Amino acid sequence: MNFLENNNVSKYIHWFLRIVMAGIFFYHGYPKLGTSVANLGLIGYLVGPFEVLGGLFILIGPFTKELLTRLGGIMLAIIMIGAIYMHIFKWNDSFFDVEYQMLLLAVSLVFTFKGDEI
């Protein structure tokens, strides 16, 4: 166990998580910029910017104050809570149909509560 905790991989593995999260949210958020999503009106216009900026903040957070990582995490968590709500309660998907969204919510909450300490 000591080997896994004290090598360079454990120090930098958070970058893999950050890059994957940023890539997912850039890919899905960029097309939503400037458009309303899911007939949500004004709130629908915030989905794209929250996804793009949240991913960007998680990616650049370690180069700035810890606040950006946490802010990006909470922005993405809000998006994922909304997505899970829409899937289950509006689109009648099963709870088991939102495992991808639940995973993204969990990772977002790790960044929210742990910041750059992960």
Describe the structure.
With 118 residues, the chain is mostly helical. It has one domain. Helix content is 70%, strand content 0%. The chain has six helices and no strands. Helix 3 packs antiparallel against helix 4 (44-60). The two termini are 17 Å apart. The mean pLDDT is 92.
Shape: globular
The residue fraction in helices comes out at over 70%
Number of strands: 0
- Spans where pLDDT lies below 50 across 5 or more residues: none
Major sheet details: none
Summing up helix and strand content along with how strands pair, one would put the structural category as mainly alpha
In angstroms, what is the radius of gyration? 15 Å
Percentage of residues in DSSP E strands: under 5%
CA distance, first residue to last residue: 17 Å
Mean pLDDT: 92
Number of helices: 6
Total domains: 1
Helix-strand string: HHHHHH
Task: Please outline the helices and strands.
Layout: H1 2-6, H2 8-12, H3 14-29, H4 44-60, H5 67-90, H6 99-114
Helix pairs in contact: 3-4, 4-5, 5-6
Q: Which structural traits does this protein have?
A:
single chain; 118 residues; mainly alpha; 6 helices; 70% helix
Q: What does this entry show, briefly?
A:
The chain has helices at 2-6, 8-12, 14-29, 44-60, 67-90, 99-114. With 118 residues, it is mainly α.
